[in-house]
Design brief:
six-stranded parallel sheet, seven-stranded parallel sheet, 13 strands, alpha/beta, 384 residues, 14 helices
């Protein structure tokens, strides 16, 4: 029988968003050695996908009463949240636990620093850039809630997805259109097909297209059209030159792809910062769908160490990528900007920071609850 859980990883969304939780599962399995972890889901369709992907116990609590009963039984000390699902508020009602938002990626998107953060006892962030983001974008936010842990998911080693190649591999990894216009950073509908066409024109390259998991199922007609065109263009290039290895990998794990690529074109999203963390020594190209360099540099400091691709420069992307692959003059800038996002954390150190932070919160919860019991014995009893 497994040990009683001290940590719950809560996820309330449907199966289409389980990618947000997936990248955390191996990290949570490492945490499980120190603090037993149970995954609590609200939907059977999500559970059907998550269960085969982890050895952690998975509990499904569809209704609010089911969730309250599960928490009364589990009595978690710390609850972790990888998104800002509206259902999180059902879980946040648990008074005997400390609640921690861990997100599913470090990103400059506006949604990455929202007032939802005020609902949690702690918010785990990657580094200084995230601290500044919360401090500058939110009113009356207590930055003392922020805990810098780096990016634990990026410490993991994944089996290679790409076959070895003598060619230089260039990855195009755009984000989806977001849930609202203010959070739309996707290049797929603006100039995605042209990006891929330009990359295919670079001599001696293998082009890999890895869209955000929500792009293939997008309901936006322009995104649908752009995605279909990109897939067609890559397929035609692969048919013309089979040995090149051009490929669409819509279902691949993006973190498994990054180590085998020599350059990447992406949008404002967590993917560009993942590249900065793992592949600091390799060229990065960042798209700007709004053709507004001032806005981009202000909102996404990573753009200061990347070549920016917009509607005025996309037609020159082929030559630019070829030049950077031969002479990467932005490497020193990426080293500097990486420090801004991830402090001095080296690859391999984030996981230790994360586990240490959770261990500390478990101890804090016990001390806080003991203090409540000392003052009022009834307050320390679990509901039921």
């Amino acid at each position: 029988m497994s040990a009683a859980p001290t940590v719950v990883a809560y996820f309330g969304e449907d199966a289409s968003r389980t990618y947000q939780l997936d990248q955390w599962l191996p990290v949570l399995e490492l945490l499980d050695a120190d603090q037993p972890v149970t995954v609590v889901l609200r939907r059977p369709d999500s559970a059907a996908l998550v269960r085969p992907r982890t050895r952690l116990p998975v509990v499904v609590s569809e209704g609010f009463a089911d969730l309250r009963a599960a928490y009364a039984r589990l009595d978690p000390k710390v609850v972790l949240y990888c998104n800002n699902s509206p259902t999180n508020f059902d879980s946040l009602l648990e008074p005997r636990a400390l609640h921690v938002h861990v997100s599913h990626g470090e990103s400059d998107k506006q949604s990455s620093a929202s007032n939802n953060a005020k609902a949690y006892d702690r918010v785990f962030v990657a580094g200084d850039a995230a601290v500044r983001r919360y401090a500058h974008r939110l009113l009356e936010f207590d930055t003392g809630r922020l805990v810098r842990v780096g990016r634990p998911q990026l410490d993991l080693r994944h089996p290679s997805v790409l076959a070895p190649s003598r060619r230089r591999t260039v990855l195009y990894a755009p984000t989806f259109e977001g849930d609202a216009d203010y959070n739309n950073y996707s290049s797929v509908d603006r100039f995605g097909p042209e990006v891929v066409t330009q990359l295919l024109a670079v001599p001696d390259v293998r082009v890999v297209y890895k869209p955000h998991p929500r792009i293939p199922g997008s309901q936006d007609p322009a995104v649908q059209s752009g995605h279909r065109d990109i897939v067609r263009i890559v397929a035609e290039a692969a048919a013309r030159e089979p040995a090149a290895g051009h490929v669409v990998l819509a279902d691949a794990d993006i973190l498994a792809l990054l180590p085998d690529c020599d350059a990447m074109v992406t949008d404002v999203s967590s993917v560009g910062l993942d590249w900065l963390y793992l592949r600091t020594d390799r060229p990065l190209f960042l798209t700007d769908r709004y053709d507004d360099a001032g806005r981009l540099h202000a909102e996404a400091p990573v753009s200061r160490c990347a070549d920016v691709v917009d509607s005025t420069s996309v037609h020159r992307l082929s030559a630019l990528v070829d030049d950077r692959l031969q002479d990467d003059g932005l490497h020193p800038a990426r080293v500097s900007v990486r420090h801004r996002y991830f402090d001095d954390v080296a690859v391999g150190e984030s996981t230790a920071r994360f586990i240490g932070a959770v261990n500390g919160l478990v101890a804090s919860r016990d001390a806080l609850l003991a203090g409540q019991v000392a003052q009022d014995p009834v307050a320390g009893q679990p509901p039921g």
